[in-house]
Design a protein that fits this description.
CATH class of the largest domain: Mainly Alpha
CATH architecture of the largest domain: Orthogonal Bundle
Number of helices: 11
CATH topology of the largest domain: Tetracycline Repressor, domain 2
Order of helices and strands: HHHHHHHHHHH
CATH superfamily of the largest domain: Tetracycline Repressor, domain 2
Distance between the termini: 57 Å
Structural class: mainly alpha
Helix content: over 70%
Number of strands: 0
Largest sheet: none
């Protein structure tokens, strides 16, 4: 049975995630989060002293659920092609549910890169260092001549870049392409199929 303290903290974290999705971490205000959680600001400050602490906690919660899922996909007993076709929709879906994450990470990389690195390591989220099965699989496929040689690190960086760029560049894309909100959603749905095909085509000899 959960305690009132745990219930309150969970409510605050969920409210923060909702407000961050709606407004982003930079423009969201603690007052808005308190109102969303239906608590007073003094109580919110009791649990989280400032917005950055709250944003960091929300990031850690999502990352601790999200990163292991991605690692499991990449190291699964599947073909490279199956992994790519599973990974891309999963990644896009999670970022669609948490669209503030890319800007949060970029902001932390610009202002607190060491802190972000340490935070990720403290959660034991170091997928690039746990990709031995994928790396061996890619080497075997390269030796067989069915894929171009590529390291697991380059493989993952290229794949993630193709998935995350629309979220980071969304304002630019919407302005340059004259897209509305629904158009952007349609674009993401198209990318769930387009990215795997493009990525795998680039790997074929």
């Amino acid at each position: 049975m959960s305690s009132p303290r745990n219930d309150t903290e969970s409510r605050i974290l969920e409210a923060a995630r909702t407000v961050f999705v709606r407004k982003g971490t930079r423009t969201a205000k603690l007052k808005e989060i308190a109102e969303e959680a239906d608590v007073n600001q003094a109580l919110l400050h009791y649990y989280y002293r400032d917005k950055k602490t709250l944003a960091d906690t929300v990031f850690e919660k999502v990352a601790s659920e999200f990163f292991p899922q991605l690692e499991a996909i990449l190291n699964a007993d599947q073909t490279v092609e199956e992994k790519v076709r599973t990974f891309v929709p999963k990644y896009i879906d999670v970022i669609q549910d948490n669209p503030y994450l890319p800007s949060y990470i970029v902001g932390e990389l610009n202002h607190n890169p060491t802190e972000l690195k340490n935070r990720i390591r403290s959660l034991d989220l170091v997928p690039f260092e746990q990709l031995g099965p994928l790396d061996r699989q890619l080497k075997q496929r390269a030796e067989e001549g069915t894929l171009r040689p590529i390291s697991a690190e380059q493989f993952v960086m290229n794949l993630v870049s193709l998935c995350v760029f629309p979220f980071i560049g969304r304002p630019l894309l919407e302005a340059a392409m004259g897209m509305e909100e629904d158009d952007f959603g349609d674009l993401l749905e198209e990318r769930k199929e387009a990215v795997p095909e493009f990525f795998l085509s680039a790997l074929r000899p």
